[in-house]
Amino acid sequence: MKSIQELSEIRDRMKQAMVIRKGTEKSYDAVAGQGSVRSQVLICGGTGCTSSGSVNIHKALDEELERRGLQDQVKVVQTGCFGLCANGPIMIIYPEGTFYSHVKVEDVPEIVSEHLLGGRSVDRLLHKEKVDGVLTTIPSLADTGFYKKQHRVALRNCGAIDPENIDEYIGTDGYQALAKVLTQMTPQQVIDTVLASGLRGRGGAGFPTGRKWQFAANQPAGKKYVVCNADEGDPGAFMDRSVLEGDPHAVLEAMAIAGYAIGADEGYIYVRAEYPIAVHRLQVAIAQAREYGLLGQDIFGTGFNFDITLRLGAGAFVCGEETALLTSIEGNRGEPHPRPPFPAVKGLFGKPTIINNVETYANVAQIINNGAAWFSAMGTEKSKGTKVFALGGKIVNTGLVEIPMGTTLREIIDDIGGGIPNGKKFKAAQTGGPSGGCIPARFLDTPIDYDNLLAIGSMMGSGGLIVMDEDNCMVDIAHFFLEFTVDESCGKCTPCRVGTRRLLEILEKIISGNGEMEDLDRMEELCRYIKEGSACGLGQTAPNPVIATMKYFRDEYIAHIVDKTCPAGVCKKLLRYSIDPEKCIGCGKCARNCPNEAIVRTDYIAPGHKLASMQILAEKCVKCGACMSGCKFDAISKS
Amino acid sequence: MKKKLTTVVFRGTPEQEEKLIAAIDKYKGVKGAMMPILQEAQSIYGYLPIEVQKIIAERTGVSLEEIYGIASFYAQFKLNPDGEVAVAVCLGTACYVKGSGQIIEEVSKQLNVAVGSTSPDGRYSLEATRCIGACGLAPVMTINGEVYGRLTVAEVAGILEKYR
What we know:
The structure holds 2 protein chains of 2 kinds. Chain A is of the alpha/beta class. In chain A, a hairpin with a 4-residue loop joins strand 9 (296-299) and strand 10. Chain A is globular and about 90 Å long. The termini of chain A are far apart. The model of chain A has no long low-confidence stretch (mean pLDDT 92). Chain B is of the alpha+beta class.
């Protein structure tokens, strides 16, 4: 492709195919003179739905359509993530916009005969949710509680287009922003627009993106690099993966725009190797963009050159830290180094480099297309735009949500997330992964933005949001994150390498019932040393889970230390299993299940029972729980 | 992460070595190529035994110490071969709060394999993985790449039975 004219022609041709997904048109001609396509079936091909079998559904649907001779009238499109991962595999049929959840291969013939041939929706597969306490059928995705409060900017194409077809991206105005900056804007104008939009880095710390670009642009001309940080390592966070799987071209386009802005001709994407689907889609997207001349030499005939290389990470959490990431691209152990010099001055291979996160890039083309004012109209005073969160843990609608900055946690958890399952009580929300903290119930109405989250002792982080209920022990959670950090500390700084291990040992002492009150003071002191003495973000934030849980859930620590009990019933060494002799019918199943012969028969026969009840010998019990999960009479309890 | 060296005997073939050398030569002159080379080497051999690291060291001129430093730094580089049945339980936060800690214990008990190791006969290996991103299906485990989601401890024995 040599001209913007050609780009616009593809867009206009594709737009016809895309309107059917807006529900405004009933059919369209895919190829002139070959009859018209009257339905499109979108199947989610994100990691969540692929794990629950969407690839086989796609295959079965193709075969069934072929068998019925419908392959020219019905087009099947594999998309990225729709967001509602808990209900996968997900399928949407246009132009009706019918939303089917939990689809199985066996459902395919019925969907074809009833819906695609008969024009009747398959009611049993429609999504159901409680509206004002009544279970109601919701026929379209846009009407679900999960979608209503969302505002999709970074995710706008996820679940809406085929990520492996560049034409569909172009059909949603893709690469128009690149065309605009190359032909109508100076590099400084691009930077000014990004600055004015108020976009801040979505990877965690929230540094203003435009300022980062300005620093790199101010460096003397010469070799510079644009890097995309797709090493999404926070456990429970999958925002970046979904963008890469659902809309990879948005990232490529933004990187090219950044390259133009700072004067770079080469980009690197550093992506987690644990994300095979994202890696594959990026490879496909880069090849297609090169074929169209949207990456490579003399883009749009403007003389601007830009190309992108993909590099796979190898499972080191610290490589999400920018200096460690650059060291890893250079082929070394991914150890961070002190800043300054910042990467914008001396980065990859010693050259000026900008590093932005995937979600940050996903906003850029739209800021160029719609203007800085459009973007800065969303969000709060200091945090503009939207934020994507990966909602997980004890929540009904596990999945991916994008909300304007300033939305409250309560809205996310109750309205979008559908609340906590099984009628359990909310205990805490964890944001920021191993660098963040746990937010207790009293802050549920705090508007979410960078500064508010910091103020309540957590952080935005990359966007993992894990909900915990009354069955989760906060001391155990702090222990879980510390184990992670101890494992992932690169070992360079002593306060982090040794300090986190000492912290973990104290936590182990507490959860095994040997804690003393003085341990809390020791931990506080250690946390301070680790924060002050570590070079990189990983070390400086490593104590956060401990600090936050000690601050908001001190009573749980005290229960472990003083009363030697775990109120949530999680910490094994503090658990006591017991059998209620009045409920026990003496069947002996628990004794047979016990791996350690810790259950014996008593000589007490409860009124109305024929056999003597059973009893657990505390000194032999290994607390595996096998007795309790096997008891049909609810006679065994733990405390 | 601390890694144990393998006790399994190296059984590389001349074909594998040929492929490895081709992969190394492909990256001649590429900046920062050691990671991609190790990744290709691992896909050829399934893991990175010291014998393979030595070939890479000789061919690239990078010292074995440096290569071992990189191979042992990153969690994805395996110094131990996988078992024929490779079980991985996700210990990401979303899976953990939904009980994957009990799941991995149960798998370890059923297979009699410690977490992070391979059974002496090379049949089973058990690994605790970082978040694989299938949080909607939590708790999750994979066996030879096949995904099992929304697990309960009671289901584990039945699933493993298929691989006995």
